[in-house]
Each structure stands twice: as C-alpha cells, then as structure tokens.
Amino acid sequence: MQVKMSEYLTAVKPDMQKLVELLKKDFAYVSVLCTDVTGTTYLVGQRQTSVGDYHFNERGFVVRVYENSCYMEYSFNEYEDIEKLASTITETLKKELHMMEELGIEKMEAPLIHEEKIEKSMTGEISVDPTSVSPEEILGRLKKISDTGAAGKYVIEFRAAAQFAHVSKLFLSEKKDLMQTYAYAEGMAAAIGVDGEKQDMVFRGFSGLKGAELLDEIEGSVDDILKMLDDKLHADSVVPGMYDVITAPEITGLIAHEAFGHGVEMDMFVKERALAKEYVGKKVASDITSMKDGAASAAEVSSYLFDDEGTLGTDTTIIKDGTLVTGISDLLSALRLGTTPTGNGKRESFERKAYTRMTNTFFTTGDNTLEEMIASIKDGYLLDGAQSGMEDPKHWGIQCMVSMGREIKDGKLTGKVVGPLTLTGYVPDLLKSISMRSDKTELFGTGACGKGYKEWVKVSDGGPYLKCKVRLG
C-alpha cells in the first residue's frame, strides 16, 4: 500500500509558498523546509510494558535566507497570519545580522545558492499499515515473543520492541517544489541471561522501509538469540594480538560507519578536522575494496528523495577499488569547498541546524562465499554482534566493541567462542588488509548517529562479510 502524505502539510503548502514569495522581496535566497513526522514505540518485557511517541516525532518549519554573504535560519511550529510571519522573520534576521556585525562576530560566509528548477515527489510503499493494527494487537504479538524467549535456558529477561515512523516533508524555494512521504519500521529482541556468576545480554535489531510486517521478522529471531546468549555466557577471553578475521555484515557496517563514514563528512573538511581531506585521489584500502553512502544507494531507514536542504539524495561512491574518491557533504559545506553537494544535509529536527550526516553507509559486495572465506583462515575468528564504536577522523584511529568471535582453526569453525572483544587499529591498515568479500550484503538501521550537540539522526550501515586483519583484545 502507498504511504499517505501528511494532510497538515498539504493544507499549509499554499501559505508556505506565499511565505517564500514575501521573503524574496528582502533576501537573495529563501527556502522553507516543512516537516511532519509521527510514530509510536512499543516495548514488552517480563517486567514492563510501554507505549509512547516515537523519539523523532516533530511538526514544524525552518526558513533559510541569504543576506550579506551568509545564511541565516528561523524556525517555528505555529503561525496565524502569513504576512505577519514574513515581517517577523525579516525583522528578526536582519536585526540579528546587524548585531553580529556591530559586535565584530565572524560570519561563516558562503556563495549564493543557484538552483535549477525542480518539481519532484516520492511516495513510499509498505505491506501492512501499522495504524491499521490496534495497539493491543501489536502489544500481544510482542508479548508472545517476550514470553517465548523468557522460557529459554539461562534467561532472566526477554524484551521485544517495535517502532513505526511516518515521515512527510516539503521543501519549497523560488525554483524547487519537492515532496516526500514514506514509512519505516524498527524492531529489536534482547535476551538477558545468567549462568552462575556470569551475566550477559544479546541484542538483535530489525529495520527497513516497512510497516507492521516487521513483527514477523522479530518473531522469527528468538531461537537464534537464545543460541547466541548461550554462546556468550560460556565464551572465553581472547588472547590479545593481531588476527585474520571475518567480520559479519553488522560488524562490517560498524567499521564503515566509524572508519570512513565520519572521516569523510565534508563539514569536517571545512574545519580542517578530517585527515581524509588530504587523501582524496589516493589509495586508502586494498584494490578490491569499495564503499558507498547515499539516500539513493540503498533502501533502508535513511533513504529519501531529498535531504533537509532540498538537495536530491545520491548514490555516492566514497572508495572505489581502494582509492578515496570523494566525501559526503551538506549544501553549505559544498558551497564553501566548491564541490557538488551529495544530499547529506540532515537535521535532528526543524529546531536544529543541518550537518553533513551519513545515510546508508556500506562496503560493496565481492564474489566469495562465506564458506570460502572461512576455509582461507588458518588461525582467526568470525566476528559477530556489534555493540559500539569510536573514531578519530583527524588521526584515523578506530575502536569497535564486538560481542563475540567464533574461533577458526585450519579453515574450520571449532565451536569455541571468545568475547566480548575490542577491535582496534589504524584505518588505512585495516582497509588495506581486506582480502575477501562475500557475495551478499546486509544493512542495519536500528541505531542513530550523534553529532554536534549530540544531535541524532537515523542512519543505516552494513555490507558483506569481509576478511581482514585486525588487533583484538
């Protein structure tokens, strides 16, 4: 079924078009982003049940104007008279600019935006509209999952959650008339277990441009989660050192996000805070390694027609055959750098500024099977279960927390499990060690990425199984 456009945004669109016309009398450039996001979160465990608003729910507007070589913004979420609103915006922004100049505050200057005339729309599709399923039915499905998992050996708590989002946005300027409406879903199942004095937890996430059909995927994961919990509770410690490893797609995505996602956000190029700026056009990975980002590069939670600055989403190749080709950028960073924006300007909400943000970030597939990759390793591990990561874009250090490693000896899985693990390294060394890639890719979109003043946006990451060399501890 097709996702419906917000009735509210449809109703206010003529007013917002009028606002652009009025503001154009005083400013060289004017745009307005109109946002309406609704959603609900459901959580069921053995000790709690909750229903609440989705974290990213919002309804509001942000106006951007160009005056005296810089851009200024004004956000609001209600208005009565559009002419009065235009007058208030004009007076407020001109007064603030004058005060900045009087106080000698340095402005972030940028060239004027020159737009092409574009009128486009996108309507997403899902199988089961979550609003057509009662909250009681959704909670009932999640309780069944929780109760089934809670019956597992060692389990002291089993939680299941689902959240459903409906996104509608308009972007209007003198030359652009853009509309998009789509839905996505996120879910998770998590088991907490105890054996003797050892306690551990296993988490599995599910996501996509989907509706309530996601509940079927969560329900089908219980057995795998219980098996993984058993493995984690009885895992040994790893002997620290360098190892040949195979990263499961979830770990591959964590590496993509931390190693060369943040590192190529081009607003960091503007601020001279990213080493990657010096390596564009140079080798940074093995010849078989390629990596992408972009709202148009995959179908996941961060796929869209246009970003929060009205730039159409792209399919951006960041690394091609081992060479760093380009970074990703928001519109204003691209203007300052003299490059083409990649559609990565995203806001946490209409009340927040736009930064360069990742969308769907992943390594591309190869032509190896997982069995061939395992057979190629004499002494190493198959890594699974991403927990968290940290990066240093200025010096290219990386640290990833991994749930477990399955031991490989002489080309075979031994059944021994180690964990939890810390994966560390220097990004180019890690990427240059990639020697095999599986023939299938998975992306994961249950998380969010923080930047600036801990401003969060939805992202996804992933890729194939990768064979590489890393330090484990």
From TrEMBL:
GO terms for molecular function: metallopeptidase activity. One of its GO terms (biological process) is proteolysis. InterPro entries: Metalloprtase-TldD/E_C, Peptidase_U62_metallo, TldD/PmbA_sf. One of its GO terms (cellular component) is cytosol. Residues 241-466 form the Metalloprotease TldD/E C-terminal domain. Belongs to the peptidase U62 family. This is TldD/PmbA family protein.
